[in-house]
Amino acid sequence: CVSRLLYLFIMTEEEFRTLLKDYDWWYSMSDDMRIWKVGFDTTIRIQNICSTNPKLNTIYQEERKKMGLK
């Protein structure tokens, strides 16, 4: 969808940092399928954003390191 792609391109650094701040980095450990689904969907969204914006990808990689993830 064009509007979805447009949103990926116009996300600000501040909006992306908020997305990462609110992101459940440990969703995959949940026994609750609803929590897992929201976390998975957010992961896909973050990956899509990072694939279109190298600066935001760098921020994401820095946050992953802070969380102790590779």
Structural class: mainly alpha
Number of strands: 0
Rounded mean pLDDT is: 90
Percentage of residues in DSSP E strands: under 5%
Question: Spans with pLDDT under 50 lasting ≥5 residues?
Answer: none
Q: How does the major sheet shape up?
A: none
Shape: globular
Percent of residues in helices: over 70%
Element-by-element helix/strand order: HHHH
**Rg to the nearest angstrom?**
12 Å
Ends apart, CA distance between termini:
31 Å
Continuous helix count? 4
Task: Give a written overview of the molecule.
By secondary structure, the chain is mainly α. Helices cover 74% and strands 0% of the residues. Helix 2 runs parallel beside helix 4 and helix 3 packs across helix 4. The radius of gyration is 12 Å and the shape is globular. The chain starts with a helix and ends with a helix.
SSE inventory with pairings:
Layout: H1 2-10, H2 13-22, H3 33-52, H4 54-66
Short summary:
By secondary structure, the protein is mainly alpha-helical. Helices cover 74% and strands 0% of the residues.
